[in-house]
Every structure is written in structure tokens, then in C-alpha cells.
Amino acid sequence: MTIDAPGPTEAVRSAAPRPATQAAARPSAPDTEPATGARGARGWLAFAGRAAPVLGWILTLVIALDLGQGAYGQLTESERSVGMFEAIGYPASAVLLVGVLQGAAVLLYAVPWTGFLGGLLLTAYLGGAVAAHIRLEDSVSHTLTPVLYAVGVWAALFLRSERIRWAVLTGR
Description:
elongated; 76% helix
């Protein structure tokens, strides 16, 4: 004798929720969305999500190398650095101190865990550079260069840090 209908124990077993391992093993339904629709947008966002940190770190490296080179010139008290400080009206003895502060800010900026603090310190340093250029009545291009560096600092932090992107985009 064969019974085609499931018995009471089989019906109870099939109505029970599946364990997570069985649910994951079950094949999913095929994707029915068109290739150019929302699926294409998700693909672009996934690519941008993977490319953003790489681009952010490349921009970070360029900025850190350039500002680090300036800090090195100040730490070694090069003639160019001393001459620029004297032109601004700072004593030559301040070159070393500013070089240490700039170098420390660049190092903090380059380290992932302290990047935000380094970005704040570099923004303050670059704000002082803008003030110095305004005081000297330099050309607009000389005055805006530190502003562009500061924008680059924060653009790189935005790109390389998912936490900063999330905070900026959600406002939290």
C-alpha cells in the first residue's frame, strides 16, 4: 500500500522554520530585472564603493608627500623656508616649531585611525597659510592654493573613510 499524501509528521516538519544553514543552501530565484535598469545602477554603486577608498588613498599620498616635503624643508631650516618666514614677518626661530607641527599633522593625517584629527590640524595650518598670503597681499593664485589643499585633504578623507562618507551623507 502506498500513500501519496504526506503524513502528519511530514506536514509538521515542512511547516517548521528552516535552520539558517538550509535557508542559505537553497538556490535563490533568478534575477528578473533588466540589465540596464536598477541592476546596472547597483553595479555602478558597488564599483564606486570599491574605487572610492583607492582614489582617496592615492589623493592622501599625493597631499601627504607634498606637505611632508614642506615640513622637511622647515625641519632642516632650509634657506627657502627661513626666507619665506622672514618675508611673512615671523622670526627664523619659528621655522623649526612650525615644521614639527606640520610634520606631526601630516603623520596624523596619513594614519587611518587618526586621519580625522590630522585633517583638522592640516586645515588649521592651511588656514594660517591663507592668512599669511592675505597679509602679504599675494596674488589670488597664491592665496587660493592652501584652500585647494584643504579641499583636497577633506575630499581624500571623504573618499577613503566609509565612516566619514556615512556621516556626511546622512548628517549623523
